[in-house]
Every structure is written in C-alpha cells, then in structure tokens.
Amino acid sequence: MHARRLRAVAPANPADALTAVLIAVLSVVVVYNAFHYPAVSGYDAELDIQYARTLVTEWRIPTELRNYYTPPGFFLLAGPLVELGDRLGLSDVGDLGQVLDGALTVGTAILLAVMCSIVFPGRAWLRFAAVAFFVCCPIVLKTATMFHPQPLVAFLAMLALVLAARMLRDGRYGVGAALVLGLVVGAGQLVRSVGVWTLGVVCIALLVAAIARAGERRARLRALVVVAVVGVLTALPWYTYLQTRYSNPIFGRGAPASPHVVTGLVPGRSAAAAPFRLVAAAPQFPSRQLRFYVDPGLPEVVTAPHREKLAPAFWPVLYTDTWGDYFGVWKWGSIQKPMDGSIENRLTVQAVVGVLPTFLAAAGLLALAGLAAVRVRSRPELVLVPLMPLVALAGMLYYAHSYPTFDADTVKALFLLPAVPALAICFGFAAETITGRSRSVAVVLGGLVAACLAVSLAFGIA
Length: 462
Fold this sequence. Notes:
- It is built from 19 helices and 2 strands.
- It is mainly α.
- It has one domain (about 15-255, about 355-460).
- Helix 5 (about 95-120) runs antiparallel to helix 6 (about 125-135), helix 5 (about 95-120) packs antiparallel against helix 7 and helix 16 crosses helix 17 (about 385-400).
- The longest helix has 30 residues, at about 215-245.
C-alpha cells in the first residue's frame, strides 16, 4: 500500500522530475540571493523601502517620494516585513521583503508549469524547457532578489492566465469563475500599472473566443463583461486617486516636454570611444526619434553591453538588461562595484549566450501566434500565450515614447517580467518542436541551449 502511494505521487517521467528539480533549485537560489544581495542595490529600492515604511506606520501614500504613483498593493505586504526586520535586528531590513519576492517567483514558476499542462497537455518536455527558460533567465533571478513590486504583479498575471486558460479550455464561463478572474486582474493593477496588460490580454482572448464560436458566444461575452467590470472596479479607487490628484489615472504623471536645447553627457557609440561624449542642442529625447526603435546597437550590444558605452535604444537596452546588467544594479554600479574589464567581459558572455534562447522564444512566439489563429475555434486558450508578450511589448513601446528619458530608464526589462512566463512557453514550444525532429538535432541543440541557460543561471546568483 505504501509503495502504491509513492508511485501515485511520483513524477510521471524524467521531464517532470527535472522540472521539479529546477523549481527546487530556483527556491534555493532566491533564498540565498535574498540574504546576500543588498536590498538597497535594486531598482528604486531605497524609495520602495521608504514607501513601505510610510504606508504601514503612517497609513498614507508617501506623496513626497518619486514613486508616489506606484499602487500600494505590494507595500501592504512588504511593509510589515520591513518592520519585522527592524524588530529582529536584521542588518538589512529589506531581506524579508526580498524573500517574499523570491517566494512569489517560485510560485510563478509553479503556475507556469500548470499553464503548460493546460495549453499543451501531455507534453512534459515542453513544460520542462519552459520552466528552464524561466528559472535561468537573469531578469527573473535579478528581480526575484530585489525589494520590488514586480514579482507580485508577475505572479498575479500568471495566476490570471491560468484561470483564463482553464475557463477557455473547459468552457466554464460561470459568473463565479469570471468574478474570481476579474478580482485577480484587478489586484494586479493595484500592484503596478503594468497589471492593466493582463486585463487587456484576458479580455481580448475572451472576445476572440466569443467571435470564433457562435455556440458559446453568449456565455463568453457574459464572462468578458464580468471580468472587465470587476477588473476595472477593483482598481478604480486607485485610478480615481491618481486622476484627481495628478491628472493621470494610469501613471500619475504627465509626459515631460521636449527641451529645445539640452547639454549633457551621453554614452559613446563604440567600445573604443570615450565612455561619454558631450552633446549640445539636442532637440528631442532619444525615444522621440525613430532611430531609438530601429538601432540594433551593434557592435556595442555584444562588445560593451552596459550603459557606459552602449547608447540608449529600445531593443539593445531591453535585450542587454534581460540577459545581462545594462543599468548596473546587479554585477556593477555605484553601490556594488565600478565597471572593470572582467565585469565587461562577463556581460559580453551574457550578451552572447542570450542569443539562442531569445531566437527560440521569438520563433516560438511567431509559430504560436499562427497556431492560435488557426485553432482559435477548437483551442481558444492558446491565444493567451502569444498575446501576453505582444501586448507587453506594445505597452513598453508606448511607455518609452510617451514618458521619455535620456537614459532609457523606461525600457527596463523588469517591465517585461509579467510576460516572461508566456515567452518561456514560446521557447519551450520552439525547442520541443525542433528537437523532436531528430535525435541528433535534439542532442546538439539541447546541449547548446543547456549551456546557455546554465551560464545565465550562474550569472543570476548574487
């Protein structure tokens, strides 16, 4: 009897066992990183810690801080942990908040595995590849280590996608299920403004499914209305607060006007050039120019993938911050250590090893978009996977153009974090499809991908 129970709970095949090992490795890494990486080194960490303190001790939004426009959801959870860290005498009071972000990231990895089993049932190696991509992606590991709201909004986004995928797959469009889904997407908007992406993705997927199949149109449209109404009403108090106080219900601030003349330092265009060059009479922000969106940043995106030498441009910054450390908050920077030759070489390695996983994820995204379009009637849940990255990229492009800066600060890869699990599924789909064609291809490509991801996992350990 005991042996039978053990067999019942054992993984069905080696791929499932390896997936469990990967999630266990992620759990160890995020806990280790939380206590070895200084909380104040992360993106806006000092401001976020101050926000959390003010919120739980004075019960008010700290309007005097630069992150006043950030919703309070994460800080309601992290604030008590900061206070507990004080009482426990921790040298770094943000440690417990970092553990929270690590736990949320592990939860997101588990939800990713669940999502794979919903949209691609029985394909254990696809699930393993997707989880491997997520676990080893540096932007996931970096953000999981920081004191930051993004892991919470990514967890809620993944939970919403799982709930929506089950609804679409099983055809269960009851008011109760739609209400729960609406509350989840609404909660995401109370953590970060990018939570609105998930609301858009879920509503678009329900609308497309309703149009594609007339037999269930009424039920799907009813679910769509419930999700949209509840999702908006849940976040409405925060949007009203921003609109009445700062005149912008989403970002809480207006776009800066482009100056007529700007004088300052910007990165040089080549590794051989001086790190910075003086510019004058710049008529526009970089992100208000076409070049910002089409410049590939070569060769600096490989030879010098950091902000001291790589000029701001959308795709180079997004790529190097995803796989490396463009802004200098992880392996170098004013708080950690200055840039030197060894760090620059390590960042170059990251720029190289990120190429193959990125190519496979992009190929999988295009392939899944086509597959979802063809099978929207029979498998509407597939729409959610390619739609999430596409909506996220569109949102980042809009944000970069509408709220420009001179250093591409609005192109941080952490904004893309809620879409990384979907990109991981795209990666898994491409990897499984290609390697399934022949054993030799599986060995060669699998070995190369494994090496790339292993190097990136090592980079993500603080």
